[in-house]
Write a structure and sequence with these properties.
It is built from seven helices and 23 strands. It is α+β, with helices and mostly antiparallel strands.
Amino acid sequence: MLLVLHDMLYSKKNYQYLNVNKFTFKKFKLCTVHAYCLLVLMSVIPLNNLYAQIDFEAGYFIDRNGARVNCLIRNLEWKYNPPEFKYKATSDGETLTGTLETIQEFGIFSARIKYVKASIKVDQSSGDMAYLSASRTPDFKIETIFLKVLVEGKASLYEYSFGNELRFYYSLDTKLFEPLIYKKFYSGGHVLENDSYKQQLYNALSCSGISQGKFENIQYRKKDLENIFIQYNKCVQSSLLLYTPTQKKDWLHFSVRPGLSYQSFKVNNSVNVNKSTSFSSQVGFRLGLEMEFVLPYNKNKWRILFEPTFRKYKADDNEVNFNRVADVKYNSIEMPVGLRHLFYINTTNTFFVNALFAYDLPFNSTINFYDASNNVVDDLEIAGRTNFMVGAGYNWANKFSVELRYSAPRNILGNVVYWRSTHQGISVLAGYRLF
């Protein structure tokens, strides 16, 4: 529909067909612009309503006065430590905000998530190889955050994630929220490591059931650190709570994506405008295989897409200037890659939006112009080009989907001197998830 409106706006044939004066046509064009904008606006408005329908989950918080309150918390499966969270006292209650100023601790029961307020020493040194410090010593700064609990017992382990950095902390007896020190630094033309965390762990967690080799070989990563804290708490027979959510196994989905594409195609010659032409818009079949990679945070609402797709376009024009005729045959494999964001309606149905960047691989594709004797006078080479795509759709039963997708214009004559083309389209896609 957007493409039809676009053609109505910019086609000179519309002006001739209406047979009206310029003033009337400008009014028609302005009304069409308004309709175009209204359609875009209507497609965006529902997003806020859908977002509001994400379920809140049973949890609790402890306020600054030490009072524990059971509530419902919006679980965003935070990738980074949140500065605040949304909660309700009841399912139909007002949505409120818990902040560092008002909350000491909060958690979500079924998701095994817990955060505690803590003032901690944070190393400001970058782990990026291009910005490594020349100092072995951490550059500490005091910050107050919600620290994520990973393991809770006599010895507890915590995580702080920000930007591209990941820091771990521990508590044991009188030591609260001590940083486990690990830092890469540049010295004498080499990248070195300050792995003081190994000695820290050996000093704090030594137990008869844990060998010294465990501490020497431990890596500064969540899995290794969780394991050593679990072993220690078991070794000293401490109560133990784990707050690592169970990872979902279905992180990769495959879907068949057939559909129909409404495509338009125009060619222009910058030297001789009489060689320019607009081919008739056509509806063509397309078939794709979608690979969807589920990102393990924010309630799995973000996905990475890769969708190799075969499609074709074929048209001719018998009204080219100087009585020449032209035809185009355009077959290609599109290689779109991009992001998808979900808006949950319930546990099985979602609304989604896509943004993709595609590279086109044409094959058996030609654009030919003929003279009155049917001789080819121009044979234009079609080349692979990139463009952007946006789409919105609906998925139900976690199995079936439908999507409306707009493909921005691409110039497939980029390698031909003096020629330029505009190929664009709107597609209606169906989807069936194989697994």
